[in-house]
Design goal:
Four copies of one chain form a homotetramer. With 466 residues, chain A is α+β, with helices and mostly antiparallel strands. In chain A, 52% of the residues lie in helices and 14% in strands. The first copy, chain A, is built from 18 helices and twelve strands. Chain A has a six-stranded mixed sheet with strand order 2-1-8-9-5-4, with no helix packed on it. Chain A has a four-stranded mixed sheet with strand order 3-6-7-10. A two-stranded antiparallel sheet of chain A has the order 11-12. In chain A, α1 packs across α2 and α9 runs antiparallel to α10. The radius of gyration of chain A is 25 Å and the shape is globular. At the A-B interface, β1, β2, β5, β9 and α10 of A face β1, β2, β5, β9 and α10 of B.
Chain lengths: 466, 466, 466, 466
């Protein structure tokens, strides 16, 4: 499929709503224009260079391969497709014992997606209703997506999945349980694939609201390139044929898909955060230089603190790859302790990075004139004059830096970026729980005892049992 | 002047640019509609209830009065006018010895502004060019606003002032030096008043970009009510008659206006931050309850940390009023150490408050559907169903809370709000410097020496001199 | 009682153990010499100036009185006596309805203590055993102190109380429940007074380990003056006559004493922390000056951060007194929200204060030579020469500052001081819980709703109920 | 040399002062007993297993070797000897061009030290006087160690070196400049080796003050094993023969030794901090379990935060070894950016680790009875009873854990440990400066520009130059 074919493929009768209106054709609607163009470009690139596609879609089997793949930058939907297929393959191996047909079904499905060159998104987070109660005790039992009917040829599902990036412009939705389920929650232990235009599916999307309508893209250099709309996907009694059902009622395996997904999502999230931190350090240094502040002590201290944080994250990312775990099938997955600790620190300190960047940039991060003002024949020259720093730092260049700072941090796009980093792969609490759970506590306890002279840890129990 | 007259008064030939275009009439242009309406409403209110106006415009002389005034909420432009006039009166007292005519000139000017019921903004921050160099060593000597010509009847000024809230919709600009000036920087030691439509004045404004064009105001409950556009004001060889010049060349007094302004701005900034913190605690609790999370331990810990921060700020604000300093003329000004320490903490911890709020709210702070989606006849009922928590928490209510969280923190408005808190009244470094400078260090050193038994501080010098 | 009589009164047969040995006479044993001397000095002072004693022992009834009393510095045991008697009087009022005889018993007891001029300590924290279980489910039912027998003339108690400052040198122990008790925990709901030398009482004390034996007091200026030993007090089947029992089985009132005590302890703890913060700022500035570092930017930043923290605490303390609550009987108690938030911040940031102080002082905080080395005839002059900074900062003076920094932070005394600040009046978690519980959440929620335009909070329920 | 010979070798006439007294024989004086015994044990071990010694003394040439050496634990003096010799060899290569004789002199010296099996300490930090002034502008020109006379056969040096761990029990002192020197500071650019008993050398030592005299070592499990006394070493006109002078006046090379030392010191400091963090996590978990608190949410959160910090450090350490730099001669040195960033974070967060540990342990970290109290026949059983948690957690075991927590953090030893971590290899500011200096800022700036679409970094200069 090339870009043109991809755009055409979106006109398939899907029900997409933005700001209260029904979208006619997602492929041509202005609300999605930026995203669609970017995804189409990847299609074109892969169409002309299938080796690039293979390089991206093949999971790495050694540390070098991990680093190489980490350095590839493709559009978010291609990335989601890769993550989804990896999740399916990883999970299928794990559930094969309990549900033998799933492995073949997954293999057939993955082959089909590859053959048709489709794009897939992950639908995991349920509406959840009252988060203090389990699925079956909700006032509305549909708060978690569930099977409402079983037929000889398939199942009928009902519920909603939230925070689905790029749902409106994908072909397929991978629906999986959001968490482990208990023995009596069989109707909620369901994993299956649903086409975006299946009857009963509605996508309520926030659209491309990150870049203000009519704004000059140069004033929003990130929003105009990197916006990924988010969809609220409703499954209202959607029929799914058996060959697309990979889990139905096997409650013990409900968490398998989410765990497999978490592995891939947190790892790519960690890479993204790492790069973001380096970008913020670089931007802070550029704006400090553009403001003539690069030799001021308190500015240097703030940049040093930013660089230290970026280095800690980079080191942790490197360690997560150096200590990767080999999964079934030889695929490598980054070490979970390092990944979760790094993701936690990156999300927890992101606000500090933003504060330092804004602190160094100053008020013009919000009040810089538009690039169009610089071009206005009446006032443009004066704006440029006063936005300039000195002969070697032109006002147009500096203005552009301010827009970059603004759009990275304090625009609607910057806000969405922050929430993505904070909530992606589970929030701070989740990362903390996973780190504590996977941290080698037995070794730490042994080190503690030995550190004050109890060489043999069995002394502990000896003393305790006296 | 009532609201209608105010709106009409803006059609005075001023040169305002937004997004590269020249605005015809600020009073009726959509880019300023929200602001103008809000300011007009205060005009109407004060027009019908002159005592309300007097209560607002009269500086407090006791702690009770300070608290009462702190509790008044008027539009930002009326507030800026009050602050500007207070600054002028405070500074005039201080410079009377060196420039006797200034006191009378200020008095006459203030009387005129009150009689005509005009609105005034503070123009303080210069373009600054290379911030590591003083005004006279800039590549462009206009980087700081300066007097370029002196005539028998007045002066001609050239330069630009940045980050001027509501400049486009005010009548008068109070131009004052941004910092202390040295003996050879006399041309930069200038304070004067300039009408918004004076020849040579251009206002390049960011406009009301905080609330996206066409968006439902209910999705942006803060941006649609509280947006204050920021102007970049250029003074290109503007003539100012003598009676409007309050400082010209008295370099020793250059910082007087900025200090007086700082006093009033930081105090009102502190009140604003205090209220914001309580609002964020309340919103965090509301959204925790709406999510069914209010009894989860880590959520409670985060809300507790937020409440502790809000309480520290409130306590510091209370202390700043309890220890207020009486200025010349009996007016009270909040204590500077408490105000600056509180402002610092409020700005430094704001990011943590936001993080906790977003952490508790979850991804729907970004991905919640529009209120218009709730009203769509095809899909609205389903959206409401899945946005609901339980019978007692309706989906429409919860959706609205998410929009409030979003618009307070991660929308373009939220970003502007953050920068305002961070940079208002000078950035973090400024507050730190002022706190250290005003903190009673002599007392602290004495307490330190006494704490380990050197009862008489003169022992210090005795020992040191042995 | 004067100092001499106090010392004699300690030779009363009490059983005190230190480092595994039984102490013969606490009044003359070296392990307690510093403490005993300090307490005796207060006795002498009060003996000669009874008005000073009255001023200290009378609870304040207005804000001025609160400030005056906060400024008084007496020894820790006199302070504990004041706190204990205040606790008894406050609690007696509250429990009078359920146990009428308690009010009179307390009044008689307080009168007796005052007449005999005795010293009282608070015994609250139980051994607690497994902290995840309630008293009655402990493997050892004595983990919480309880009544093991009831006789016509009194009760018999068994258990241990931990962390009792100055227990070894006091006359009376106020035994109160450590927490609220449930209906079936009547044996644990016991409050009574026990003389230090009652049969069955053993005090296992850490002794004056904070100042190393044989060390020069000038090297340990805080430990040698402010050390308060801690006792582990065991009540092994101790008989308490009825007139000294103030609670026995009234489980609903079990927490009354602890709450009353908490009020007074946290308030005095807050004053202590506030002063400590100012002392640390002063010491940081003194050592920075002594090192010739007071103009280095990063040093100034650290001192500014310390001063900001000290100011926040001071402001919160001021607010806690300005918003004091009037108790039964007209006595004023500081506001609990401000007190707890301030206590939390002071304990949480204490480590940062210490780090900055050590950072500014440098390695000599640990490695400075003894004052005795300065006096050594062979090497003293050289030590002084190299410990000096410049002509105006003598080596002997600077050495003394290093010892002060060391002893305030990194000596055994410094460590005990930190734990006292961290755990005094309950740990961080307790302060967080109390702050959240007492914070005016209803007001914050109302402010949040109003902030985005829901003027009438009843709209909330209206929306929620639709 | 074996342990006995080492002890005998210390009786060489050296002048050592502790607490104002001259020590007769360091090898047998109680003030150094613990240290001497520990060092002697390593001598014995190496004497009987020379391969162990070679394994320790040979610098690694691959990552595996780095990890293996990092895992070896020897006494601090052997470690200092290794670090000193590595520093000499590294620096000798670097200065060979300017001072050819240095390389041979170093080689001969190192061979001699190895042959005689001597122990060497690093003497780097000068007295410094007024730290805001350079050496030549000090009131006392000896504030930095300098050459006061040059003779045909050698030089005479004068000055003092501070914070020298184990100086009193070493054989040789490596004297090197503390920082870069300017062209006119030739007398301060001196590096040479001095025997501990050379005429004119005085060592004023703090002695083994970390473990209180007479205390039970079980109550101080760290101090009694790991105390390293610190010496203030005075060089009062000490003659050094030419063959022991490795730098004299080559100001451009003054910093070479300090840089080489810094490399090795920060790397081993980083390993030490990493291990300390894991020990603190383990101890926190052990004490939480011993207190019955391991399932309480806020305790788990604190342990999770500790584990996250430990993991960040471990990851950064791993990365510093994976990206090691190969020095002249094939020796590997850990990457400096990772090492400094990790060291910074480890030192900056150490206080938080301590706070969490103390928070979880509770007041008994300070007030736990002595192990000797547990053994007292009268009261021991009761102490054990009340220090116990439940049947599976004995009071003796739990008491020991409290002593470990205390001695690791809040005893005099804990304080010294903290300062060592904070100041070792330079303080926080130094690490921040080095990290910012070595961080690949050019790459970060390029990433920043590319991130908002300026693919070719030359656009930057293009724009800037327009």
């Amino acid at each position: 499929m090339d870009g043109k074919a991809y755009i055409a493929s979106l006109d398939d009768g899907r029900r997409v709503y933005v700001g209260g209106r029904r979208v006619g054709n997602v492929g041509t609607d202005p609300a999605f224009a930026g995203m669609v163009a970017k995804i189409a470009a990847t299609y074109d690139h892969f169409h002309h260079d299938p080796r690039a596609r293979d390089a991206f879609m093949t999971p790495p089997t050694d540390a070098e391969g991990m680093r190489a793949q980490a350095a590839l930058h493709v559009d978010g939907l291609s990335h989601a497709t890769y993550t989804s297929l990896m999740t399916l393959l990883t999970a299928a191996d794990r559930i094969a014992a309990a549900r033998p047909q799933a492995r073949e079904a997954v293999a057939a499905y993955v082959a089909e997606v590859r053959a048709k060159d489709l794009r897939v998104v992950e639908c995991i987070t349920d509406a959840k209703g009252d988060r203090s109660r389990p699925p079956a005790l909700q006032d509305d039992r549909d708060a978690y997506l569930r099977v409402v009917a079983r037929r000889p040829d398939g199942i009928v599902i009902r519920g909603a999945k939230l925070h689905i990036s790029l749902a409106a412009v994908a072909h397929e939705m991978m629906v999986i349980p959001t968490k482990a389920m208990k023995a009596d929650e069989g109707d909620y232990a369901v994993a299956c694939m649903v086409p975006a235009n299946a009857p009963g599916v509605s996508i309520v999307d926030v659209g491309n609201g990150e870049a203000p309508a009519g704004a000059d893209p140069r004033d929003f250099p990130y929003a105009s390139r990197d916006s990924n709309s988010q969809g609220f996907v409703i499954f209202h009694d959607v029929f799914v044929p058996n060959e697309r059902v990979f889990l139905d009622g096997e409650t013990k395996l409900a968490a398998t898909f989410a765990h497999a997904l978490g592995l891939w999502v947190r790892a790519s999230s960690m890479i993204h955060i790492c790069d973001s931190y380096d970008v913020m350090v670089g931007l802070a240094q550029l704006i400090a230089e553009a403001n003539g502040l690069e030799r001021i002590e308190h500015i240097k201290s703030k940049i040093a603190e930013m660089a230290i944080n970026a280095t800690l994250l980079r080191g942790t990312l490197e360690a997560s790859m150096a200590h990767a775990t080999r999964l079934e099938g030889g695929v490598l997955a980054p070490d979970e302790v390092f990944t979760n600790a790094g993701k936690y620190h990156g999300a927890a300190q992101y606000g500090t990075m933003v504060r330092h960047l804004l602190d160094i940039a100053g008020g013009s991060a919000i009040t810089a004139p538009s690039v169009r003002d610089l071009e206005n024949p009446e006032v443009g020259e004066l704006v440029r004059k006063y936005m300039g720093t000195k002969q070697s730092v032109d006002g147009a260049y500096r203005t552009q830096l301010f827009h970059a700072v603004h759009d990275l941090t304090t625009s609607a796009h910057g806000g969405a970026r922050y929430v993505g980093i904070l909530q992606g792969g589970g929030g701070l609490h989740t990362q903390a729980v996973v780190t504590r759970g996977r941290y080698d506590m037995a070794r730490a306890k042994r080190m503690a005892l030995e550190s004050f002279g109890w060489k043999d840890p069995s002394e502990e129990s000896a003393l305790a049992a006296e």
